[in-house]
Amino acid sequence: MSVAPKGRARGQAPTIEQINADILTQLASEYWAPHSNLPRRSFEPKVIEDVYHKELIQNKFAIRRIMLLEFSQYLENYLWPNYIPEKASKTHVLSIVVLINEKFREGVPPWEACKSKPEHFPGFFRQVMEFCLEDDEAKVNIKEQTILMGFLIHCFNSLEVDVIREQVQRLVSLPMWVNLLPGRLEKELQLYPKYKKFWNIVKKVDAKADDKTKAKNEFERQFLSRLIQCFYKILDSIPETGKIKANKVHYCERFVELMTDLEAQLPTRRFLNVVLDDSHVVVRCRLSHLNKRHEGKLFTQLLDMLTFYTGFEISDSTGTALTDHEMTDLHYDRMSSLQRAAYKLFEDLRRFSLSNVASVDTRKALTNHFEKLTASQLHQFAAHLHLMAPLPEETETTSDKEFLLELMVSMHERRQSQIQVLNETPLYPTDKLLWDENVVPTEYFSGEGCLALPKLNLQMLTLHDYLLRNFNLFRLESMYEIRQDLEDAILRMKPWVAENGETFFGGWARMAQPITAFSVVEVAKPNIGENHPASVRADVTITLNLRRQIKNEWEALRKHDVAFLISVRPMKKIGSRFNLKEEHFIESVGLLHVRGCEVEGMLNEEGRVIEDGPDPKPELPGAQRTYRVWLDSNQYQQDMAGTAAGGEDVYESFNIIMRRKPKENNFKAVLETIRNLMNTDCVVPDWLHDIILGYGDPGAAHYSKMENQIATLNWNDTFLSLDHLKAGFPGHDIKVTATDPAKQKPPFRITFPVTSGGGGKKRKKAEEEKETEKKELVVEPHVIPNRGPYPYNQPKRNTIQFTPTQIEAIRAGMQPGLTMVVGPPGTGKTDVAVQIISNIYHNFPSQRTLIVTHSNQALNQLFEKIIALDIDERHLLRLGHGEEALETEKDFSRYGRVNYVLARRLELLKEVERLQESLGVGGDVAYTCETAGHFFLYQVVARWEKFLSKVKPTATSGQRSGSEDILEHFPFNKYFENAPQPVFKGTSFDEDMDIAEGCYRHIKKIFQQLEEFRAFELLRSGLDRSKYLMIKEAKIIAMTCTHAALKRHDLVNMNFQYDNILMEESAQILEIETFIPLLLQNPEDGFSRLKRWIMIGDHHQLPPVIKNMAFQKYSNMEQSLFTRFVRLGVPTVDLDAQGRARPSVATLYNWRYKKLGNLPHVHLTQEFHRANPGFRFDFQLINVEDFNGVGESEPNPYFYQNLAEAEYVVALFMYMRLLGYPAEKISILTTYNGQKHLIRDVINQRCAGNPLIGQPSKVTTVDRFQGQQNDYILLSLVRTRAVGHIRDVRRLVVAMSRARLGLYVFARVSLFQNCYELSPTFNLLVERPLQLHLAPRETYPTTRKVEEIPFGQPLIVDDMPHMAQFVYDFYQDRLRVIQAKQGHQRQLQAQLAKPPVSHTPSPAKPVPKVQHVAKRQDSLKPPGTAEDTSEEEVGEKAENEKTVEDNEDVEMKEEGAKSE
Fold first, then answer.
1. Pairing state of beta strands 776-781 and 748-751?
2. Which residue, 1232, 1111, 1100, 1113, is CA-closest to 1156?
3. Residues forming beta bridges with residue 562, ordered by sequence position
4. What's the whole-model pTM score?
């Protein structure tokens, strides 16, 4: 099967020697390997035949053999280049199919080879279809048919690839209706008149076609219908009892998967759905023997998915979602037709015909009425309804009565509403679901078979379908994590059976406790229209005889925390071992039930819930604690129904309660959010709706096609000068309204020519006529009004010289519509985002912008840059718990902002009091915001107007006052005495009048702010004040996507509103977590007020983290919405200049992007011109061979380590420190968690306690380091047997793009240079020597230029022991120099006595002498000696402490899946 049982021993990976000796490796070296030393031999078809029959068929298509072929570039260099449709054999075609399927399984780009010769693909695809329909097993056996079925699935899931789409679309277009019964065809064409018109056109075209074209068209139109018949033949061959061929089961599963995939996308579903219905696929599958056998469990689950999609609530012709009301109308229409036919044909069914529909449309009622009819009568009945072909007169039917009855009943029975089914689904997982491998697979999913899981591909049917798929996947993915936690906690508890038959717990778990008492205390009555209780509450009592810290953790359980109630009834006696390799977990521990619950709170001594709040929790006596919990009412109702039917009462059997870490336990809140969205009218903006579902014009939401484009926008401080503006719009004519060069200064308002949205020939013609006009931009310089005389009144300004592409991204972000910005590493994504936010803030002061990111770190980086721009901090708000990490003195959290407003209010009232004193006004006008408002209106405004009347020239007199009049009559001179003097310059009237108006604006702003803060005097509680701040005061609100998903309900209830969304790290956010922020507000009059959606990300870097391989690969859950939009062809702005790395280092990854160049400062700044001191090259690939005969090792499953690389990397780090490199400028990265722990251990042994060396900035994995950078990166790739997950080019891009100035990669070169996907990077790396070239005479920093050769002969390091010896000697030399300088101080000598490198290059205790490193290799101890910390111990320690991070878990499992 597709899933390996947990704990199964894996086959040992082959050594590099075994791989080199393999026959496939030898063939590859002769015929197609890219870096072979042998001369390339010419193409021989026999080679393909031999490889296929001897290596694939004989080994039953073993994954290891296919992997070896695929990695050797068999497809790219041999199969496809030599494929000629007219000459190719079946073996050649199937070999290509196997290799493409393997590429999909490996997760590498599958169609690149086919794109090299796209003209051959139609012929190839035709051959594939012919083999799919081959019913002679001697020619194409059932295993090969299954492989071909998998290939078809991959084709239909690659509709964005032009060469694929052109072929598969023909198979599912309108002409496929030739396979329908004539009566059914006529009925369908009458229903859809536009189809009838197209049908007539098809017939006319066919009449004119030649015989060859007709034959081709007929084959394509009948392909899927004939494939269904082939499937029936195999399905019917499966017996009811007895032995069953596994290959037949796999074929049937694959076929149902294919049909489900076709039904789940509108372009493939539109015409196929009728054909499937006409062929009765679902009915035939339901009645099949396979559906009733235990071997067919997965088949049955897949069939349930197919049944769901064949009856999905959508109009196939228009693609619009059908409401419950419309679905009911369709059901009644079908039933009416049925009743009329029954009345006409059968007198016995008159009563049925005249009954009301609701009384006869259940399965039971329909079966009771129809089973009276004979098989021939049922056939006649079905034929009348165009469900079966008409029977010739006086002929008995050959169809089975059971089939005909099921056909009639399933077509007409009342269906339960999909939303009703969802609302009755329990949110918590149960034991049955948690350990069902078909829906929650283990981490060892190999990627071969299929699973009963929904897929996230390019297109969805409706928003309901979109949300439902994400709901199911999110629920199942969280189940996988819950299952791991349950297994860990229960095994730690060691449940055994005592002699008296009771359960005894021989161990303990931090996260689980035995239940002392459990009772259901309340079952509320159901709400109207529901059949489950409104709520169910229970009390759980446990005894906390634990150490204080853990007891505090249990007592800290808060409201809404999720816990799990577990029933175990073990069969093992006390002291027995739990061996999961030989028995399943459930049988091993005696697990009976698992149910979820939500904590309401802990009970006090009176039995009342202790409420969360600012007050300290009361100290409770004793060790017993009781918690009030909410149970899932849907699950409770189902369980009680089971108990009433004679089953066990689940709620009498619980004996363990398990809690989870709060950060990992938010699944229920997210699921509730998705379910609430599905129960409301999801009002997505019209301009976004079709794009989210994947239909229509991908560019429809681009600003250039929006009806509400804005012609003139204030670009604020975006441009540093007019020259910068001109450079930012190359190819445009710039017309400046101000002719005086002195006035041609920023800020600028720019007027763009606007085109009306929509299509049409007239519009296109008008656009062509205005092409020249389009290129003209009208630029209007303007002066920001004076804000006051104080230095802090001056606006903060942008200092970044944006590139033309960045300016286009900013322009798109300011306009309405969808903006997608692809930001390669170091291209200023955050700066662009901040400028967009600032420009929207200034152009649309009344609009509110929501900022969403994946991580708190990214949100904080964004916020720190926003604070530096001209944005009033009272309009900023940061939601969630990440604000603690903000590197600012100010608190931007909700309560931090409330405190800021209250403090600011007092400051402003003091200013009002000072103003009052300066004006000599009596009374307590600065007591409240309200009194201050009256003071402003009656005292301040009156004086200002009087001042204006005196100094401004009147229309009648025409006299103009002088600047001295301003100083004389200005009413606020005394108030501004504390401003820089003199306030008025006295040089000109206009200048002084501008200063006076600025002073008045300063005063006016004080009172405007007080008016905004007035509500805080009326609202007394901190909660009310924070809500007011969020819905009224804040203009820029920031949160993580997780916070948005968790708090949607609360935000909607408080009437939270926003106009724009900006998402950073969009390519790292789960699809559903990207979608939810669009719907954090209620629609206004049925319309969304959302105007802009700006997504900034990089789909060429790592995707969202999905822990389970099956969900990640099979369901494509790792695909972000950003990535899906890119695949669909939504227009993007690709930032094209990086400013992070040296140009030479950037070449290692810039090939992955469209025209990625360098920013000017990379060429101009000195640090990029200077060489890396001590190194000959600024980047280098260093080949690391086996050490003591060992390359990679695996102390624990998928916990990969490489001792030689770890020692080499640490030795190089020490060398750099001895040259003077700052430790904080060096980071050590690796691609595996095991290697990370090994390197940390080596550093702790060698360097940590040594003040000369210390520790690097970070030692972590590539995945964890995404979004960060450092000057110098040392990278260990670990693997020596298989490339591993660095083969994912996205991980390679992240790894290569973290370094600014120097990158040194340690790897087995012979392995990685042969990898097709990595070749653009490794071809550059191998151009330089593969041995480390050092210049030890230099020190940090150096004046040597990067292109200059270091002085003297470079030191060429042969291998790791050589490096270890050299560093030891180098260290001793430095030590002697230091000692000579400082006069042999004993204290320093004691500190530095330990040398950094021992004679044992393993994670060992340092030993005084190291001379034996190069000379006596026999003394080098293998890992795991008694005195050393071995790799195995490092691995075990890491596993036991559960320090494995999320990404890294995924990395290890991915490797296991591929090597399985």
1. antiparallel
2. 1100
3. 598
4. 0.89
